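Bug #77: duplicate submission created two jobs. Keeping one. Sequence:
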Amino acid sequence: QVQLVESGGGLVQAGGSLRLSCAASGRTFSAYAMGWFRQAPGKEREFVAAISWNGGTRNYADSVKGRFTISRHNAKNTVYLQTNNLKPEDTAVYYCAAPARAGGLDLVPLTSYDYWGQGTQVTVSS
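Kept job's structure:
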């Protein structure tokens, strides 16, 4: 059973930074891509960033390019999301996600992912 546990959220002022972490267990972490999504109140869950199994390919939503960085440490079974220059519109619950398949996926759509964490709240004050 794949389990994903996020941490690192909190309250930060605009312009600040947070590093989100997602610890994975239940299968060989290094074989699978990983993704981050977010959901603001009253809005649909949206793609933020994704990283391939070896970190060689990274995708970002246009709204976070240049401010957020996704990375992974396969020996620690952990994926990270470094968020810099945060804006009030970044306020959301951030979710870590993992696909059931090991490759050949478009990592942007929500439907590519089968396993989800419980989420961590990020609140950015103006």
